[in-house]
Amino acid sequence: MALKCGIVGLPNVGKSTLFNCLSNAKAQSANFPFCTIEPNVGVITVPDVRLNKLAELVQPQAVQPTTVEIVDIAGLVKGASKGEGLGNKFLANIRETDAVLHVLRCFDDGNVVHVDGSVDPLRDKEVIDMELQLKDLETVEARMQKVKKAAGTGDKDAQKLLALYTRLHEALSSGISARAVDVDESELPTLNDLQLLTAKPVLYVCNVDEGSVVTGNEYVERVRAMAAAEGAEVMVIGAAIEADIAELEDPAERKEFLEDLGLEEPGVAKLIRAAYGLLNLQTYFTAGVKEVRAWTIKRGFTAPQAAGVIHTDFQKGFIRAEVIAYEDFVQLGSENAVKEAGKLKVEGKEYLVQDGDVMHFRFNV
Fold first, then answer.
1. If we measure between CA atoms, which residue out of 213, 224, 82, 256 comes closest to residue 90?
2. At 359, which helix (H) or strand (E)?
3. Mean pLDDT calculated for residue range 85-98
4. SS in 3 state form for 293-309?
5. Which among 75, 127, 256, 283 counts the fewest CB atoms within 10 Å?
């Protein structure tokens, strides 16, 4: 599924360094604004211990993990909504993504200049929010002008559209992002059609120094308080440290380095999984001698929809799905053992796929 997370933030907050760690792409990273002019796209493998465990049990010829796309978008600045600092191009790049990883600088370092002269993650966050909100206001105002005349003549559909646009306009004008506006299910298609920048789900990523990766710091606490009020999640990561970890090819050295820092795994692994969740994605597995594979689906997919991710013919000719819960597969050790224990379920078209299901589809075309 071609869904993307965009990494955004002011210049020099650590976006490109973090992107390099995530994807091993060679995005330029330098101590000056606009070192990233074109957005860099990386296809990132999603770490999943369940896939590894299934592979151990099945011993397939191949193992295929699931992936998510991460886009490194050049740093926004004040005035981006009016085109400042190549702003229009950067905002267009954000519009093409499905969720936002908002990197905030939460470390002091006199050798790394800050575009505004001092470290203040909440101020930085507000700068970007304002630019995105201003751009969204332009979009909403243009739509309002299109439906006002029809709404005034009594057109019920136009009145419903205008009511939604008005609520969005009031929020954005007050410095409130579109994602915070209450929208009922019937209005979701209209909201999605607007492609508002501030309607995208967001994860705040606090880039900290080495001494703060485990416990955080004062900057992080301020970000957490802000995010709690928004209902958003926060992740703490040290981009510079992650760069050092990425250079260690020996697993033993990497493990020792992580233990010295008080970490169980690299921060990028947690961040990738968080990005996957932010996109409202989940995983199901197929497990056979030829291949054990993780498949990406949206939460709430039915069995035929999940089958369609493998091939459209699977969805068109869907007959049934044979489903094994991941825990049952691991506990009993094989598909045959699961069948003998009566744990294999046969599900129809209405079955909602659960995260971790091991599935086999029957179809006819």
1. 82
2. strand 358-363
3. 71
4. EEEEEECCCEHHHHHHH
5. 256
Task: List strand residue ranges (DSSP E) for 214-307, in order.
Answer: 233-237, 281-287, 291-298
Give the type of residue at 70.
I
Say if residues 99 and 275 touch (Cβ distance below 8 Å): yes
The string of pLDDT tens digits covering residues 108-160 is: 888 776 777 789 999 999 998 998 899 899 999 999 999 999 999 999 999 99
- Predicted confidence at residue 1, as pLDDT, reads 56
Give the Cα separation of 315 and 93 in Å (integer).
32
**Look-up of token digits 């993990």:** 65
Whether residue 318 contacts residue 365, with contact meaning beta carbons closer than 8 Å, is answered with no
State how far the Cα of 173 lies from the Cα of 167, in Å rounded to an integer.
Answer: 10
End-to-end CA distance of the chain: give it in Å, rounded: 23
- 10: its two tokens: 């002011």
pLDDT digit string (tens) for 193-218? Answer: 999 989 999 999 999 999 999 989 99
When the pLDDT of each residue in the chain is averaged and rounded to a whole number, the result is 87
Q: Which DSSP string corresponds to 241-278?
A: HHHHHHH--SHHHHHHHHHHHT-SS-HHHHHHHHHHHH
Percentage helix, strand, coil for the chain under 3-state DSSP, each rounded to 5? 50, 20, 35
